[in-house]
Design brief:
By secondary structure, this protein is of the alpha+beta class. The protein folds into three domains: 77 residues, Arc Repressor Mutant, subunit A, CATH 1.10.10.10; 106 residues, 3-Layer(aba) Sandwich (D-Maltodextrin-Binding Protein, domain 2); 91 residues, 3-Layer(aba) Sandwich (D-Maltodextrin-Binding Protein, domain 2), CATH 3.40.190.10. The chain is built from nine helices and ten strands.
Length: 325
């Protein structure tokens, strides 16, 4: 068997994540027939069936699920190698830090101040993303380290837990539940998160918006796994058009807070974030049976960078300081 090519893996991952040949072809910028042929040739080369195809569905086989996991890792490694080589050759080297604005446990200014004084420090460049998007840039070389909420997809990464703080529920003060001193998740039945998921499922239930699922893999252009819809081997049909009004998929926190004020949605925020956004029309209510928010610092398992090691060491020291005091 000949060695697999990155082109083949990229085609396979697109189909495996979209589970729809038409959408996968559009995502990678090629026509559908040659993509279908390429997948059949890959199956022939490997001697296994990667997809079960019907007129309405495309489903990964057990062999396809194994290849998807390893193909993602391989493509991440190839992209990361190129990016890290380019970064290392830049005239001014930098430490790229991935984070979601406001998700820093209130520690980021102190971490950056202390890090700047370390002899191994490099100038810091912030790589900003939406909730749940911080681990992937570290894996694929767009970032050297990340501040993110645990749990997340840890494959290929090491991490250190920094601080733990409660999640609070943000809801309109006019909501009847807002007057209670504490709530339980079951009390939130009928209320929705920014992406449309039921609030009673907790902060990690939402696939969109400010409170989203922990890190998911994305394609080279940021394409993530597809949602529900037709998945045949033909072009996408009318069912692929999103239904208006089914979810508030904005990821901008001020916009989300405005929707909370209007009573359209609720959302979960770490306590440190609620302290930055006091609003008279929003109540921040504890939820007694909700796991707390845990901030972590993550870095590549194979990293040997003194700058990354210094950042992790400083972050851990700053996070521990309040407890020592």
């Amino acid at each position: 068997m000949n060695d697999l090519e990155t082109r083949q893996l990229r085609y396979f991952v697109a189909v495996a994540e979209e589970l729809h040949f038409g959408r996968a072809a559009e995502r990678i910028g090629m026509a559908q027939p040659p993509l279908s042929r390429a997948i059949r040739e890959l199956e022939h080369q490997l001697g296994v069936q990667l997809f079960t195809r019907t007129t309405r569905r495309v489903v990964l086989t057990s062999a396809g699920e194994i290849l998807l996991r390893d193909a993602r890792t391989a493509l991440d490694a190839v992209r990361a190698a190129g990016r890290r080589a380019r970064h290392a050759g830049e005239p001014t080297r930098r430490l790229r830090l991935a984070l979601k604005p406001d998700i820093d446990g209130g520690l980021l200014p102190r971490i950056l101040d202390a890090y700047a004084g370390d002899e191994a420090a490099l100038p810091v460049e912030l790589v900003l993303g939406r909730f749940g998007e911080q681990a992937q840039p570290v894996r694929d070389g767009r970032a050297d380290t990340a501040l993110l909420l645990h749990p997340f997809d840890e494959h290929g990464l090491d991490h250190h837990l920094l601080v733990t703080e409660p999640f609070l529920l943000a809801m309109a003060v006019a909501d009847p539940l807002a007057a209670r001193p504490s709530l339980r998740l079951a009390d939130l039945t009928g209320r929705s998160l920014p992406g449309g998921s039921p609030a009673h499922q907790g902060p990690f239930a939402d696939a969109h918006g400010w409170t989203g699922t922990p890190d998911q893999h994305s394609g080279p252009a940021g394409d993530g796994p597809a949602g529900d819809g037709p998945a045949g081997d033909g072009p996408a049909g009318d069912d692929d058009t999103p239904t208006a009004g089914t979810a508030q998929s904005t990821s901008d926190l001020p916009q989300i807070l405005r929707l909370v004020e209007l009573g359209s949605i609720v959302c979960f925020l770490p306590t440190s974030v609620t302290l930055r956004y006091p609003r008279p029309e929003i109540a921040y209510v504890p939820v007694s049976d909700l796991e707390p928010a845990t901030l972590a610092v993550a870095w590549p398992q194979e990293s040997r960078s003194p700058a990354v090691a210094a950042f992790v060491r400083v972050a851990a020291t700053i996070a521990a300081a309040p407890r020592q005091e």
